[in-house]
Structures are given as structure tokens and as C-alpha cells.
Design goal:
Bound molecules: 2'-monophosphoadenosine-5'-diphosphate
Strand content: 15-25%
Distance between the termini: 24 Å
Radius of gyration: 19 Å
Largest sheet: 6 strands, mixed
Strand order of the largest sheet: 2-1-3-5-6-4
Length: about 280
Amino acid sequence: MPGISINGRTKLYGIIGNPVKHSFSPGMQSLAFQHLGINAVYLPFRILEEQLPRLLDAFDLTGVKGFNITIPYKEKIIPFLDLLSDEAAVLQSVNTVVRTDEGWKGYSTDGRGLVRSLEAAKVAVEGKKITIVGAGGAARAIALSLLKAGVSGLMICNRTRSRAQKLADLLNSHSSGISVATAESVQPGDILINATSVGMETNDSPVPGDLLTECGMVVDIIYNPAQTTLLQQAAELSIPSMNGIDMLLYQGVEAFEIWTGKAAPVETMRQSLVSSLYSE
Ligand code: ATR
């Protein structure tokens, strides 16, 4: 690996959030810059909410080229940005910002991250019926990107039905064929995607296990634990499955490509994630 030496031309990128110390992005993105010999560093910035209005001025002054945004600022950053991508405008959520000639531009790469992780696994989504469990920020981003990728049907299943309906209404203004369900009425579709946090802290599964028998593939956006109860159920039924590490990877790949205009070193970034996630 060529590596970099920090000097007067080193560019600065980073991630803002609170907390931010657990983020895997500084390791993953720094290694990607190094791998391609790009003279740049990527640092974590813990930002308090009252500091947010002054943040972009500070980044202008210090020459920051781009940054990621994590909890709790994905929506709160928007009033301070100059431009939004189409997806970020629909979702009203931003996880990647780049400095452009027209000002700071916000993107949402989480949904594309999920679609690209499926593409990388040679799973075609075009023409497929997909069921998403959840209706929060992650589910919204995934749903929009799947619709853009040409899925033929989308079912949104959520504990709180009204929230699923709200998401379906938002999406139906861009597409059609979106239905809503609760755990009692859900149909698994060709691919079932868990976009809730159920299974992260407990051994619960977000859907009844017997539902999976009719399902072609199961995706869980949770990456820690690497195998949730939902994914164990899929494995027991010999149903192909995928956890959330590649979504995490590819949202970062998309961000890297927005900032640099270069193809990201995907394998290097993946190794960084895997070693920081699973070797502790
Ligand atoms: P994120 O932005 O990460 O998607 P969020 O907006 O808080 O987080 O959304 C969390 C999602 O997980 C929601 O769909 C939530 O369901 P509700 O809308 O009914 O709250 C779902 N969720 C969280 N805990 C759950 C649980 N124990 N059982 C079922 N669904 C749960």
C-alpha cells in the first residue's frame, strides 16, 4: 500500500455526530485514501447541537472537503446545506456532504448502499417483490433506492401501522404498488429486509419464523451481531441471507466516490470494517 505523508497539501474529511467515537468510518475511509495514494485524512468530530449552525463556516475556514453525518444530525444538518441530491430531498435526510462550486451538497447513500450490496452479491432486485420490515430512517432510504432500482412491488411492514402508511404515502407520490402490513398480515416477498433494530440487543426476530419458508432471500441490516435470530432462522431453512455489513460498506463506498470521483477500493474498505467490527 502506497501510504500517505501528511504535508501542506493534505485534504481533510470527517464524520460529525454525537456520539461519534464508535464509528467505523474513520478507519475505513482513511484506509481507502491511503490505498489509492490520495493525500487526505478522515477524522471524527463530536459536535453538539448548538454548534451545528457554526459548523459549515468552521469547515469552510479549515478547508474540509467533505464529511459524513451520523446520529443525531442527519435531518438537522439540512437547513445549513446549499444543495440536496434528489434522494436526500425526498428523504429529508443526509449522511454525506461534499463541497461543490455551488456550495455544500447533501446526499443520502444508505439506500444505495443496500442496493449495491445486493448487486455485489449478484442478487438482482429489478422486477422482484420486496418486503421491508420497519418504517424509520433506514427503511425509508432503502425503500426509495429499491424503487429506483426497479423493484416490481414493495410491502412496508411496521409495528406501528400508521408509520408504515406514512412512508407508503411518501413513496406512492414517486411510484406505485406500495402496500403496508403489520407482523400479522405481512407477506415475505422474494426478498425480506429487516430495517428495524430488532435483533440487535435481544434474540427477538422482527417477523414470525414460519413466514420465512415462502421467502427467497433474507437481509438483515444489523451487522452486530453478525448473525441475528432472523438470519439464524433463514439459515435453518437453507434460505440465502445477508447481514448489514455490506450495506455499511457500500454506503461508505458511495460517499468515497462522491468525494473523490474515483472507484473506491472496496475490498480494502471491507477488510477495515471486518477487522474493527469482529476482531475486538
Ligand atoms: P432508524 O432511523 O435506524 O430506522 P427509527 O427511525 O427509530 O430508526 O426506526 C426504528 C424502526 O424499528 C421503526 O420501524 C420501529 O417501529 P415503530 O415505528 O413501530 O416504532 C422499529 N422497531 C424498533 N423496535 C421495535 C420492536 N421492539 N418491535 C418492532 N419494531 C421495532
